Amino acid sequence: MRTGPSNQDSVLGASVISVSELLRSVRDVLERRFPLLWVAGEISNFTCAASGHWYFTLKDPAAQVDCVMFRGRAALLDWQPREGMRVEARALATLYEPRGRFQLNVETLRQAGLGALYERFLKLRDKLEREGLFDPALKRELPEHPRAIGVVTSLAAAALHDVLTTLARRNPSIPVIVYPVPVQGEGAAAKIAAMLARASERAECDVLLLVRGGGSIEDLWQFNEEAVARAIRASRIPVVVGVGHETDVTIADFAADRRAATPTAAAELASPARDELLARIGDCARRAAREVRRRIETAMQTVDSLARRLVHPAQQLRASGRHVAHLAARLANAAHRRLDAAQARLADAPRRIAHAAARRMEGAQARLARLRASLTGLDPGAVLARGYSITHNAKGEVLRDASRVAVGERLTSTLARGSLESEVTRTAKS
């Protein structure tokens, strides 16, 4: 016989679920109900596992919660959490199912109280960047050989000792002017800006070092103030900023003509090393000596060459006399050759003239024979000798057409020997 559901089954539902299903459901509800959020507390039981994951407890006076920060997220953090440090964790509330344990999966960490300051930092940085205050084109070159170096910092700061030690080591011949100013505390930013303006007006040095040692973000906050950034850009002297450690970045770093990782690095940037300068001077001296020696040797060779070309006047006269005699001999030989040629032509002239006259005579005779032959063919006497006659009318006109002669007209015919007179009795047309 079947029995109906008990009161307990009615409360839990008709079906029975496993522990893992229950915890998974609780985890889903937690993650939907509490998305990523910032949680403040104090770190305790901090452990860095061999895998690189961080495990710690975040607590306040009334409660505590387990936290895990996986290796990929932890590697993005540029500072190391420590036991007892107050932090703010951006985390996801979830459930670690294998243990049934509530925990926070931490995405990132920041030191407590820094969130608002960091927001101010980003807001001011973006504002000044939009204005063009950080434009690389505005950055001035540092002098290669400064006549004097100014240091703007606190007289009590350890950074001043580091800077002075570095400058003395690198180049003790460069004068150093210290412009004392507080670098921490209320109102320090306005005093730093005023001192930068005063140093710029006095123009006693060629480069300014604005330096301070490391500290918390609150300690360094004076260098994140707008007044300091604008004073740096307003300075007529290039400014090198060396504040804090290498990982510390301030608004003053963006505004500076050069940023240095530390105060010591700022001193090294601004001052040429004496040893390097001496080495360069020595190298220049050696190159100058080589160049002078080379020029002297070249000049000596030139003098020797000119000396070889230089000839005594008497020797030049003798050489000129020999040259003139040579030219005279050549002229005489040329005249003799031309005279001999002319005499040879004169001696041969009669023979050449007779030969030419004979050639011309033969040509004239040949031409005369041709003309004579031509005239013989045209001679009327020769024509008459061949049996022809020439007939004239009474007027002496030579008759060529019978139609021009009248019957009864008297004509005279010339023969090869003698002539005949006749009277026309009849004419006939050809």
Compact overview of the structure:
This protein is of the alpha/beta class and 430 residues long. The protein has four domains: 16-112, OB fold (Dihydrolipoamide Acetyltransferase, E2P), CATH 2.40.50.140; 120-137 and 147-272, Rossmann fold (3-Layer(aba) Sandwich), CATH 3.40.50; 276-306; 384-423, no CATH class.
Notes on the structure:
With 430 residues, the chain is α/β, with parallel strands linked by helices. It folds into four domains: 16-112, Nucleic acid-binding proteins (OB fold (Dihydrolipoamide Acetyltransferase, E2P), Beta Barrel), CATH 2.40.50; 120-137 and 147-272, Rossmann fold; 276-306; 384-423, no CATH class. The protein is 47% helix and 20% strand. It contains twelve helices and 13 strands. The protein has helices at 7-12, 19-33, 71-74, 114-131, 158-170, 188-202, 226-234, 251-255, 263-270, 274-309, 313-378, 380-385; strands at residues 37-48, 54-60, 63-69, 86-96, 101-111, 149-153, 176-180, 207-212, 239-243, 258-259, 390-392, 410-414, 419-423. Strands 1-2-3-5-4 form a five-stranded mixed beta barrel. A five-stranded parallel beta sheet has the order 7-6-8-9-10, sandwiched between helices. α5 (158-170) links the parallel β6 and β7 (176-180). α5 (158-170) runs parallel beside α9 (263-270) and α6 (188-202) runs parallel beside α7. The relative contact order is 0.06.
